[in-house]
Amino acid sequence: MLLSGGNAFDAAVAAMFAAAVVEPTSSFSFGSEAVLTFSEGKSGSVGALCGQGVAPGKATPAHFAQLGMNVIPTGPGRDAPLAFTTPGMFGAALAMLSKFGTKGFGDVIEPALEYAGTGIVNYEYMASRIEPASLSQFNLFPPGGAEIFFTEGQANKAGTKLKQPALAATLSALRDAAEAAEGTREDKIAAARHCFYSGNVGKKIVAEAQKVGGLIEDSDMSAYRESFEEPVSTSFEGYEIHGQSFWSQAPVMQQTLNILEAFDLRALGHNSADYIHTVTEALKLAFADREAFYGDPKFAAVPAAGLLDKKYGRTRAKLIDLAHTSMELPDPGTPWHYSGESPQDVVPVNWSGVDGPLEKIETGTTHISVIDSDGNFVAATPSGGAFGKSVFFSELGFTLSTRSEMFNLVANHPNCLAPGKRPRTSLVSYIVTKDGQPVMTVGCPGGDAQVQANLQIFLNIVIWQMTPQEAVEAPRFSTLSIPNSFYPHNYLKGQLAIEQGFEPRVVDDLSSRGHMVVEVATCGMGATITARNNDTGVLATSSDPRRACYAYGW
Q1: Looking at residue 352, what is its pLDDT?
Q2: How far is CA 351 from CA 326, 490, 493, in A?
Q3: For the whole model, what pTM was predicted?
């Protein structure tokens, strides 16, 4: 896209569409969601774009109570369709293309269409990540994707060809709808959107979802609206960090940075026991507020100003015991005391009985970042529709997201399920500015590890003066002592996950403070920092070795 004269917005949209085809093991489907942050070079404005899907009209706490459920389930299993949300990625992508892009819809969909129709080579990373759980889920809702991603019950071997004809047909229908429309570039983009949400493709999505017990109706699809929003921001070490609002977990990073301002991180030493302990305990304090106060601000009163208040952060920092870990999630704070907002009753969600073995670190979600010569920055984190958790619709060639699993069913809680409401998503992306000018994007997939990994790679750049590549390669850690955002919401009290690369004496020190240290393969994977030096104009990016991840520049 860039080489053919397009800008960063064109390229980001085309890359999201293509990724939905070539990264089927990244828990990212064409029927899923995306969150984006961006900066427009012409105006210098920084913004956020929400492509998170919402709960259908029939998805109510009462409905699940009638089913005898006190949580919203998902796959693997036959209950997966109950967690379907309306697809949001496509709407968000088209909104960005229409408002900031230069290319037509046909231009940005063409690579994805070619990859689906002509095919791609099954590459080693993808072949090794197709799991038996995916085949089991396909078989529950046959034919699923068994005939596409498996051969005689075995995952396709690396080096063979992968064609996705049903997906190609869906993408062709969207392209044809755009081409048949008269008028401007924007009119044709709108026609593609109409086809997806209200036209032939949208009606097929609803019909397929309802066949398997999904709650989505035509009215849910036609009513869906992506939204441009003001980002949530804070400052740290002369930088401003901008991300999604409280309908996502993104503000956990800003809250944690406010807490960490009370400590001399440089004196602690990079990835020392003191450093890991301090950052981990600060994260727990922010996660405690996430559990108590975060939810869709269109439906819930979120004490946003108090949560982001610097004095509130310093007060929370005083709760950190440098010698001992908090085995359970700390109590949430009282942010309204610092902002003048109305006091709120904290509605508890009891996950105390939810525990179990260390769950496998999420292999899904992807992240895309683009900077162009005009000073445009885009950071996109699309995700949703994991094969092992959703339903693969063979007539459409893709799955739907099951992000409703991130709601709770507790009355009056900010994240309680409601029709048309956004679940408190785990998806995040960040734009960082300095003196009002964008300097980098920050993003890393990984469920609840997303915000934790993003925090660490940001600190690696700002505090530890690493290059983008060094920042993403450095070993990471992640607290598991929080209720997991994903069903069944495992709460592994006191557990601290670490990757390989930490010195044994550091691990021993952390254990002496009460951390139950467990070694995992990854704490977030696919991290990317893309940066611009505003003094020299030099651009730099990174590629995370933890998964198939690529960096390009010209």
Answers
A1: 57
A2: 17, 8, 11
A3: 0.96
